[in-house]
Amino acid sequence: MALTLAEKILSQRTGREVRAGDTIIAPVDVALGQDGTSPLAVKQLESIGLEKVANPENTVFFIDHAAPSPRKELSNDHKMLREFAEKTGSVLSDVGAGVCHQLIAEDFGAPGQVIIGADSHTCMAGALGAFATGMGSTDVAIGMALGKTWLRVPETIRINITGKLPAGVFAKDIVLHVIGILGADGATYKALEFTGETVAEMPMDDRLTLSNMAVEAGAKAGLIESDSVTKSYLEQNGRGQAFKPLKADEGADYERIIDIDVSNLEPTLAAPHTVDNVRTVGDLQGTAVDQVFIGSCTNGRLSDIAIAASILKGKQVAASVRCRVVPSSRKIFLEAIQAGYIEQLVEAGAVILAPGCGPCVGVHEGILGDGEVSLNTSNRNFQGRLGNPLGCIYLGSPAVAAAAALTGVITDPREVLTNAHGR
Amino acid sequence: MNVFQGKTWVFGDDIDTDAIIPARYLTTQDPKILAAHCMEDAEPDFPKKVQPGDIIVGGKNFGCGSSREHAPIAISGAGVSLVIAESFARIFFRNAINIGLPIVECPQAVSGCENGHTLQVDLAAGVVKNLTLNESYEAVAFPDFMQEIIQAGGLIGFVKRQTGGEK
């Protein structure tokens, strides 16, 4: 029988053919938690006396959401995680190493794996052809302890993307457009499979952006087939041996197929307070912005920082704007330093923060004041997300964000892009 | 045990976990402390006025967003007996069952329901009654294993019972 990518991965990992709708017990290849969710997972394990993990070298605790810690309670949580990792032999990724999902992509994820994480954006590793999904602390705790979890094999919605992206339009614009079509619950319980010629030609940085935001349509996974791009990404990260090709079968059964031609796509944003409140840049042009945040697991990679630097190089961030740039990992930070982007951004007036989640969840590094507006390259614009329910958040690509940092208002990035990224 | 009755607090579509419990309060796992801020960004009066046994009524996609299990813990800590919604986000659904918070999908019960109505819910039978409107609706009954998890106070209590660890 012809299988979707989700069915194929889960069939391979359970050793029998499984189909959408089957409830299965799957082995867990990588399990992760972050500093917001792991303390509860650790307490749950302690409460049942299961203070060990099945697969320590692939059980990872990340200190990234509030890092460095802004409060003593969180410092104590961090301490608890360091101690638990030490006791169980699991991996601890400490302050400044980067965002959990980026580090899973660089150091742990591989095609064909089952990955569970106590963070909803765990779905990002789907870009490597892994079945990766977010769960709560208790589910992940049990998965860490037993090395297995239960799953319902999801139906799949295929997103077939064709056409050449116009100048100034990026993967972020595509995924916001897709969420606008699906709605915030349009893929609940389902897998998304991103496919088509545009995805085939996309570098891994951009594929990760697509998979990252699958959960914003409610999806359980955001999968992309494993191909030569996947192979070279793994090789660049010293893990070429983890590669295996994977793709969906011809004639697999999809719940729905959505065809998108991106040839005429406009720069796209999500307006407050839901991610599916999608508009084109023309609708929002001129909206004043107080803060810009370029970073997060969605868009803090080298190519994202390069675009921002190309727009801000030799210029100044508008006096009315606080611009924060947060590389997604230490490796990316170093590469951005070596390429000269960090110097260009600092000279332009941007504030560079330690690799990690930055202000994304609203616990530190950029809480909004009452009535203030932030333009983020991250994945959520819920009310209160930047720590103040009286603030407003727009989401857009790094080009849209850097253009707003330059002008102080939402601006079409095509007006300020230099030829290098204007294609 | 499986029949709940309480007054309703009605919320709209896409109530996300940042609205249920903002990340700025994720400095504890204590249900009572989390409950003091439950839903405050969506309805500032909620944590002050919610009564034990009250029922939250949501629209579509209740509990979307972050995977934080603190969201159902905060709701449960506030004394809310159960949540009824048109639909739930996937991670919230699992988290609610895992911590022993009953949740019911029943679009018919949501439409027409207003703040302060009295609902009666029989989980095993899958029946929701709006006593204020004198109407009755069918919901999907909980499978036995989910009822057992909820009766054990969540997955951890359930595992303890299974392994004989419960004293």
The gist of it:
The complex is a heterodimer of chains A (423) and B (167). With 423 residues, chain A is α/β, with parallel strands linked by helices. Helices cover 33% and strands 18% of the residues of chain A.
What is the topology?
The complex is a heterodimer of chains A (423) and B (167).
Chain A: H1 5-14, E1 23-27, E2 30-34, H2 38-47, E3 59-62, H3 72-88, E4 91-93, H4 100-108, E5 114-118, E6 131-134, H5 137-146, E7 148-152, E8 156-162, H6 171-182, E9 191-195, H7 197-200, H8 204-212, E10 221-223, H9 228-236, E11 256-261, E12 268-270, E13 278-280, H10 281-284, E14 291-295, H11 296-299, H12 302-312, E15 322-326, H13 330-338, H14 341-347, E16 351-352, E17 373-376, E18 392-395, H15 398-407, H16 419-422
Parallel strand pairs in A: 2-3, 2-5, 3-4, 5-6, 8-9, 8-11, 9-10, 14-15, 14-17, 15-16, 17-18
Antiparallel strand pairs in A: 1-7, 12-13
Helix pairs in contact in A: 2-5, 6-8, 12-14, 12-15
Chain B: E1 3-10, H1 17-20, H2 31-35, H3 46-49, E2 55-58, H4 70-77, E3 82-85, H5 90-99, E4 103-105, H6 107-110, E5 118-122, E6 127-130, E7 135-138, H7 144-151, H8 155-162
Parallel strand pairs in B: 1-2, 2-3, 3-4
Antiparallel strand pairs in B: 1-5, 5-6, 6-7
